[in-house]
Amino acid sequence: MPNHSRVTRRLSLKTVLAAAVLLPLFRTGVSAEPAAAAEEPVSPRLDLMSFNLRYASTTRPNSWAVRRPVMRALLRQEAPHVIGTQEGLHQQLLDIEADLGANYRWIGAGRAGGNRDEFMAVFYDTRRLAPVEYQHFWLSDTPEVPGSNTWGGGSIRMVTWVRFRDLRDGGGQFYVLNTHLDNLSQYARERSAALIAQRIAGFDQSLPLVVTGDFNVAAHKNPVYDTMLGAGLVDTWDTAAERGELYATFHGYRPLTPGGDRIDWILATPEVTAHRAAINTFSLNGQFPSDHLPVQASLTLG
Predict the structure, then answer these.
(1) CB neighbours of residue 43 within 10 Å
(2) How much is the average pLDDT of 256-271?
(3) Is the pLDDT of residue 223 over 70?
(4) For the chain, what is the mean pLDDT?
(5) In what order do the strands lie in the sheet with 158-166?
(6) How open is the CA angle 262-57-254, to the nearest 5 degrees?
(7) For the domain bounded by 46-300, which CATH number is listed?
(8) What is the rounded distance in angstroms from the CA atom of residue 121 to the CA atom of residue 256?
(9) pTM
(10) Measured between alpha carbons, how far is 85 from 106 in angstroms, rounded to an integer?
């Protein structure tokens, strides 16, 4: 997959804050903790986002043309180091890359192969991270076959994972695995979770791992969640020292549901410290950037 490099001029912070209705949930690269002693340097925090983008369409009132400026304002305001996205179409991802600006790149493949259909694209800030390796696999009995779908799911489903080197944390490495499970078939979701757990077991166990995704089931309420935690992961929403207000992460452009189900998760291996987790309710003039709310976590990787 090409390493895209479209470059555009970024909005100034003043412009973004003037357009936004909320202050950033996370201060990129800034720690609220007291400075540590010289002999015990504090690892810089890593800000991650999991975001189902809602595929680009021309259907109003929530067409991509209408949503794109809101998406741009949100992403520039938050500026995560990593964004695990779901549902993005190829041109939509190029738009987001352009809107994020010159410091961001992304890695992904269309789930039907090549640039076709939806991507599980992983965006990253090149000032902080460098990809070391990446792969894609499909959630089926033939995971190396692009576009394969053998478990009766309503759509082709896949995973994109990347091993990054942290340029600001001594060159330490870690994995990001990003996915989107099926919306129709519980059987397909369970088989998918089992395959992901199997693949995670094959990673370098000495490296931290973060999983982002839309799992299409509620945390704590489904065997899929149990399988993912059984793979040796923890839910950063639960382990975070501080968290924002809980909302259902899928809203479908309807009024938000406080205390609702989290179907979008950021999971991690236990050595990862979650400082803050939040569900971002950003909108502009009543317009949401997607039919999902992005989930965010500020982490130290261990």
Answers:
(1) 17
(2) 98
(3) yes
(4) 90
(5) 129-138, 158-166, 173-180, 209-214, 264-268, 234-235
(6) 40
(7) 3.60.10.10
(8) 26
(9) 0.88
(10) 10
